[in-house]
Design a protein that fits this description.
Blueprint (H helix, E strand, L loop, with lengths): L1 E6 L5 H14 L4 E5 L5 H11 L10 H25 L3 E5 L2 H10 L4 H12 L6 E6 L2 H15 L13 H17 L4 E5 L4 H18 L6
Helix pairs in contact: 1-8, 2-3, 3-5, 4-7
The protein binds adenosine-5'-triphosphate (ATP) and magnesium ion.
C-alpha cells in the first residue's frame, strides 16, 4: 500500500503524516515513512542542492531542477519504496510525483516532459492513494513563517518559501487539477480546519483503502 501526501507549503503535510504514521503504528501495521526530496542518504545531498540557495547566487534552470528531482525520486524508488512495497509494507511518503507536476509545471516545464520522465522513473508505479491537502497559500505561508520563527535552523526557510504568492496559487490550482483528473487515486482534503479535523478527514479516506487491501484497521 503506497500512500503519498501532497499540498502547498505549510498545508500540514508533515504534521498529518506524523499523526497518520503514529496511528498506523498503534494499529501494528508494518510501516515505512519517508519524504521527497531526500528519502535516501544520496537524496539528502540532492535535497540540499535543490532547496538551499547556493552561495554563488547560481540557480538551477527549470530543466536541471526537474532532472534532479527525478534523480532523487529514482533513487528513492530503488532503495526505499519498491523494496518496502515488495515486502508488503505500508509506505507513507511526504511529497511525491504530484509535487513535481504542480511545482515544475507551474515553473513552466511542459506536461510532455513530465510524462516522459515519469515513464522513465516510475515505470507505471502509482500511489494507491494520494492525499492532497488543500488550503489558500496565503494561510499556509503564514503558518510556515510562524513555524520557521519558532523552530529555528532545522526548518530554515527554503528557496521555495520566497517565491511569490501568485506562484503558490498556481501550484494550488495544479494540485486541484490533479485531484480532478485522478478522482480514484486522489483524496482532496480541506486543510484550513484545525489539525484534529484534518486528521479525521484523512483517516476517513485512508482507512477504507487499507481495509480493502486486507489490513486490519478497525
Ligand atoms: N490544520 C492546521 N491549522 C493550523 N496550523 C497548522 C495546521 N496544520 C499544520 N499547522 C502548522 O503549520 C505549520 C506548517 O505545517 P507543516 O510543517 O506540517 O506543513 P508542511 O505542509 O509539511 O510544510 P512544508 O511544505 O514546508 O514541508 C506548522 O507549524 C504546523 O504546526
Ligand atoms: Mg513538511
Amino acid at each position: 500500500m503506497f500512500i503519498t501526501i501532497e499540498g502547498v507549503e505549510g498545508s500540514g503535510k508533515s504534521t498529518q503524516l506524523l499523526r497518520l504514521s503514529e496511528r498506523l503504528r498503534r494499529l501494528g501495521l508494518p510501516l515505512v515513512v519517508s519524504k521527497e526530496p531526500g528519502g535516501t542518504p544520496l537524496g539528502r545531498e540532492l535535497r540540499r542542492l535543490l532547496l538551499e540557495p547556493h552561495a554563488s547566487g547560481d540557480a538551477w534552470c527549470p530543466d536541471s531542477e526537474l532532472l534532479l528531482f527525478y534523480a532523487d525520486r529514482a533513487q528513492h524508488l530503488y532503495a526505499v519504496i519498491r523494496p518496502a512495497l515488495a515486502a508488503k509494507q505500508v509506505v507513507l511518503v511526504d511529497r511525491f510525483e504530484d509535487s513535481s507536476r504542480a511545482y515544475q509545471g507551474a515553473s513552466g516545464v511542459p506536461d510532455a516532459s513530465l510524462d516522459r520522465l515519469s515513464d522513465l522513473v516510475l515505470k507505471g508505479l502509482r500511489p494507491d492513494l494520494t492525499v492532497i491537502l488543500d488550503v489558500d497559500p496565503e494561510v499556509s505561508l503564514q503558518r510556515v513563517e510562524v513555524r520557521n520563527l519558532s523552530l529555528g535552523t532545522e526548518f530554515a526557510e527554503t528557496r521555495f518559501d520566497h517565491a511569490a504568492l501568485a506562484f503558490h496559487r498556481q501550484v494550488r490550482e495544479r494540485f486541484l487539477q490533479i485531484a480532478r483528473s485522478h478522482p480514484d487515486r486522489v483524496a482532496l482534503v480541506p486543510a484550513r480546519d484545525p489539525v484534529e479535523q484534518v486528521e479525521a478527514a484523512i483517516w476517513a479516506r485512508v482507512a477504507p483503502k487499507l481495509r480493502h487491501a486486507g489490513f486490519e484497521v478497525s
